[in-house]
TrEMBL record:
This is Uncharacterized protein. One of its GO terms (biological process) is transcription-coupled nucleotide-excision repair. WD repeats lie at residues 98-140, 185-220, 288-329. Keywords: DNA damage, DNA repair, Repeat, WD repeat. It comes from Zostera marina (Eelgrass). The keyword Signal does not apply.
């Protein structure tokens, strides 16, 4: 630590690299917080957690009992343990008796512009937009099946669309301004489990379905323009064997494939002016799969360059969004939940990946796949995790109905406003033994 500070003062290390190194070290040293506790009001497993993008302060949670709640992670409502542990109680709770969802809430997300609105998706076939101040529904959208995932673009400036995936084979885009569906994206052959907007292009949305396919859509064009294939990995320095092999005609197999595909006639999609849009994909490419099983998670990095996916095969894949290649990163084996979608977390510098695995959280190095640390936390299966990059805190939700806070270890005693509590805190360390 001190050597890094000295190198920073001497200019031997870039400020961004220095801050990233400190932040990564703090993330690697996360432990269950010894000074912060979130009081969960849910009577069912916690399925989704989101921190707001504006202040990194308000935590939104959705649970299997259909309830939704919000917490202020910076304002403590009560103290415990002589003022040592700060309790964070919910600001409000919306359940099925207060006009909430009838069945389990599968996804929650904040409105990207401010915290005045938030979006929830549920197994009761509804996607609802809520007013945070009045806790009332502003607009709702009736879906044809269970809603597995809903998401809004964090960089959109020209639209207010919610991409929703359900047990139906179509992805639907819901417009908050008009209260109607604006797009229907058709291409999947089974239900859609995961929905994620691109972090670099407000018009691109990525979906993962129960047909094991991950599709990229440009909502300004018909059809998807890319399907990820787990076989297509990023080429290395050494060419594959087939490129050097020679067939019975005396030419290399790679050259033979190139000649055959060169003469293949492509069917093009053109608009009214004759401009080519997206070529219609070949049948073999249209059947490409990203995992051996349905897709349970899609998570894009903040720089918009990479995509992380998980599937029912308990594998984690790292994709290059620009090329669509499956990057050669072998993540260590882990047990992933397959019954419902998961929620991952990635550090802002894309160095660490946090994955819920059974009753714990595993932290992987993004570029080597090495397991950095395992956080044993819950008594039952962990469903989701959410990262607060401002305070370097990790929030986790599980089927045991609890929301846990992981923070960098703090050996110092926090300041307590009440003098009596401060005196009780120091006196609690004294013993009552006689000399």
């Amino acid at each position: 630590m001190w050597s890094d500070l000295r190198n920073r003062e001497l200019g031997d290390i870039h400020p961004i690299l220095f801050s990233n190194a400190i932040r990564k070290r703090r993330f690697c040293n996360l432990t269950i917080s010894n000074y912060k506790e979130i009081v969960s009001p849910h009577n069912g497993g916690v399925n989704s957690l989101r921190i707001d993008l504006i202040e990194n302060r308000y935590l939104l949670s959705g649970a299997s009992d259909g309830s939704v709640s919000t917490f202020d992670t910076q304002y403590t409502t009560d103290y415990e343990g002589g003022g040592l542990i700060g309790k964070h109680k919910p600001l409000f709770v919306i359940d099925r008796h207060c006009g909430g969802h009838k069945y389990a809430v599968s996804s929650v997300s904040w409105y990207p512009v401010d915290t005045g609105l938030f979006v929830t998706g549920s197994y009761d076939h509804y996607v609802k937009v809520w007013d945070t101040n009045s806790t009332k529904v502003v607009v709702d959208f009736k879906m044809p099946g269970k809603v597995y995932g809903s998401s809004m673009s964090s960089i959109a400036t020209t639209h207010m669309l919610i991409a929703a995936g359900s047990s139906d084979i179509q992805v639907r885009l819901c417009d908050i301004a008009s209260g109607a569906f604006t797009h229907t994206l058709t291409g999947h052959r089974d239900g859609i489990m995961a929905v994620e907007w691109s972090a670099s292009n407000e018009w691109v949305v990525m979906t993962g379905g129960c047909d094991s396919a991950i599709r990229f859509w440009d909502i300004r064009r018909p059809g998807c323009f890319r399907i990820l294939d787990r076989v297509q990995s990023l080429p290395g320095r050494r060419p594959p064997i087939y490129e050097r092999a020679i067939n019975e005609k005396g030419v290399t197999i790679a050259e033979d494939i190139k000649n055959r595909t060169k003469n293949r006639r492509a069917v093009l999609i053109r608009d009214s002016s004759g401009k080519q849009l997206y070529p219609r994909m070949a049948l073999s490419h249209n059947l490409a799969t990203a995992h051996c099983g349905w897709i349970t998670t899609l998570k894009a990095t903040e720089d918009g360059m990479h995509l992380i996916s998980t599937g029912a095969d308990s594998k984690i894949c790292l994709w290059d969004i620009e090329s669509g290649y499956n990057l050669p990163v072998c993540f260590e084996s882990t047990n992933l939940q397959m019954e419902k979608p998961l929620q991952l977390a990635v550090t802002p510098d894309s160095s660490l990946l946090f994955v819920p695995s059974m009753n714990c959280i595993k932290a992987f190095d993004m570029w080597s796949g090495k397991l950095m640390k395992t956080f044993p936390c819950h008594y039952e299966t962990t469903n989701c995790c959410c990262l607060n990059s401002q305070d370097q805190e990790l929030y986790t939700g599980s089927n045991d109905r609890h929301i846990l806070v992981f923070s960098p270890f703090n050996a110092t005693i926090p300041e307590v406003e009440d003098g009596y509590k401060r005196d009780m805190l120091y006196s609690s360390d004294q013993d009552f033994w006689s000399d």
